[in-house]
Amino acid sequence: MRAAQLKAVLPRELLASVVVFLVALPLCMGIAIASGMPPAKGLITGIIGGLVVGWLAGSPLQVSGPAAGLVVLVFEVVRVHGAAMLGPILLLAGLLQLLAGHYRLGCWFRVTAPAVVYGMLAGIGVLIVLSQVHVMLDGVPMPSGLANLVGFPAALSQALPTLDGGFGWQAGILGVCTILVMWLWDKWRPRALRFVPGALLGVGLATLASLALALQVKRVEVPDNLADAIDWLRPGDLLNLADPNLLIAAFAVAFIASAETLLSAAAVDRMHNGQRSDFDKELKAQGVGNMLCGLVGALPMTGVIVRSSANVQAGATTRLSAIFHGAWLLGFVLLLSSVLQSIPVASLAGVLVYTGIKLVDIKVFRGLSRYGLMPMVTYAATALAIVFTDLLTGVLIGFGLTLLKLAWKASRLRISLVDLPRDGEMELRLTGAATFLKVPALTQVLSTVPDGTTLYVPLGNLSYIDHSCFELLEEWGRANAAKHSRLVIEAQGLKRRLEGRGRTNVGLGMPRSGQGRRNA
Fold first, then answer.
1. What is the pLDDT of residue 504?
2. What string of DSSP letters covers 42-85?
3. What keywords are annotated for this sequence in UniProt (predicted)?
4. pTM of the predicted model, to two decimals?
5. Residues whose CB is less than 8 angstroms from the CB of residue 365 and which lie 6 or more positions away in sequence, other chains included
């Protein structure tokens, strides 16, 4: 960028970066706490997402950092394998993203059915809400969504100001107030103050109230020296990647992070008229970022839509805003860590509860109805399976339903046997896809053709015919030749519709109505 151009855009980019920084600050810490990690880990990921990924990004207006979409997966990894194993997982996941971008596979990550992706985000949103309501009461979340749901009444009773209760009710009030402020701000935000994020306002007011009233609540623990929060990857930990569970987790992180990043990048492209996203370059940048996060023991990152949309709405036009937001995060942590240590954990949990509720997007669910019932079923099944089982199972169920729908569509074939005006002539009309799944139905219809019939089979209405169906037709022609029956297959479009090349043992028959026919 030339000096004149830089001078022209710098004020706008600095202002936008401050807005993004204010949005990112509470989210980075809240997502880390929800993931079972110290808040500083989320801040480190946000810093890397700004300074490194912001510089390398293929989507210049997209902002990267810790994302709510990976909270459930990270929490499970930390709970089962320990925080130290997150480093090797991120290193491998980042390498997979880097390779995917290098081999130009970015477009394939967007092949995922939207119903599965949105269902996955909805399921994650429900799990975040179920876990963070415990944190809002200064409690500890349980391992599963169902356990969090069942255990909530007991956690609530322990937080109430009874004889046996503690001070969890104070934290709960702060969390609820944070959610209320965010909701009211989103609903009635003055146009002149649209750049002020609701999350920052909610957390700021809750922090001031907790200090003024001297409430006995848990507060954020951030080290005075950011270097103390870095846990360098130990080479010996890489050997643990031989564990199949860790390998699956790495592939899951790579896939989910890539899908969420590219969906976010596509959404950001629709918000502005500037440079379009290079999805492969963006994947490589995310891969580098996640590998760095793995090396320093931070949280995984993705491109995130909330911070990215705030960036566009604040007037950003270049990647400088995303880079500067990382610099603001770094400076704040280095110089004002004592301010972060005053923030109530319950208030950050309130931010995550509000974020989780918004992930369950009812408008998206209703919008899927335009494409039929099956996408809605896939969305609901994916979300419910994630809530009641685990993330991987839910996503696999979503993929399974998508493939089932494709198989059903591919196997649809309308078969009708029609009498033609001339005696002894019939036409077998096939519409759709003639695959091996329809061999029994096709056999049954062919068995009803009278002996001595000339059977015409036009292929014009077929989108596809495989060898099993074509060979069935040929076999019928050979088997019924002795009964004076004749099979005439249309030649036009045969090579295009038949799997492989045209058959050489099919001879030309007499054309009818000017159309070429093939005679078996």
1. 35
2. HHHHHHHIIIIIHHH-SSTT-EEE--GGGHHHHHHHHHHH-GGG
3. Membrane, Transmembrane, Transmembrane helix
4. 0.73
5. 118, 122, 376, 379, 380
